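User: Hi! I'm working on a homework problem where we have to compare a predicted structure to a textbook description. Could you give me the structure for the chain below?
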Amino acid sequence: MQLETGTVSYSSSDQEFPAYFARPIGARGPLPALVLIHEVFGVDEFIEDVARRFATAGYEVLAPDLFSPGGARPEEITRARVAAVKAFLNANPAAWSGPAAREEALSRVQEGERQALAATLGRLFGPDEGRAQRFARYVEILGAAVRHLHGAGAGDRHVGALGFCMGGGLSGLLACAEPSLDAAVIFYGAPPPAEKLSAIKCPILGHYADPDPRITPLIPPFSDALKANGVSFEGHVYLGARHGFFNDTSAGYHLEASRAALARTLTFLLEHLS
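Assistant: Happy to help. Predicted structure tokens:
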């Protein structure tokens, strides 16, 4: 299938945000649409590839770069700097476990490179202080993306959200905040706070890893709360897969889990966005 791809921008609270887009060429009428929400690494080659995969399946996909208010990222988290951090983490998987493990892995890197990596890691994995405010702003930006897609379709389309890791958590938070959202897909993202769950109206599909002790144990109460509120929730746990298993550019990629999750996601979107 031939695709049209590129970058567009849209406005949220008087700030412009760039977004990678992909859609089939020659489609008639407004297509069902997806807001694709990136991991902590921002919009990168993986996210752009995923956008093209879903566009090939017949969706218009918009992937906002939440790290680029005004159209550009800060120096510490440019795509090149983030790619270097991703390579560092792939080479040192234990560094995912926390600050102490990252410091230990950094101690084995030459000084100049170490300083650059540390600055980028600090921006990406900084302290939780201010996290709630930062994520609330991200949800505003994503809500504007949903409305942008509705406007581009003259209001005659269904729009869903799909996110990975940090973006998976944001997909759930967006479902709490955006009443026009028709479906949400969460890949190994933390569920929203319990006090927000009553606002969710759209169906949710979740994909989770086992082992993933930080996220997966939180899913049973999340599922119970949604079902008690009458919200459709379909959750899948992939034994032997690690957090991040869908990302085929990372050390945690798991082919079988990725294949099953993609098939289930396409079925779910066909049901709820058609």
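For your comparison, note the following. The CA atoms of residues 62 and 167 lie 13 Å apart. DSSP finds eight helices and eight strands in the chain. Good luck with the assignment!
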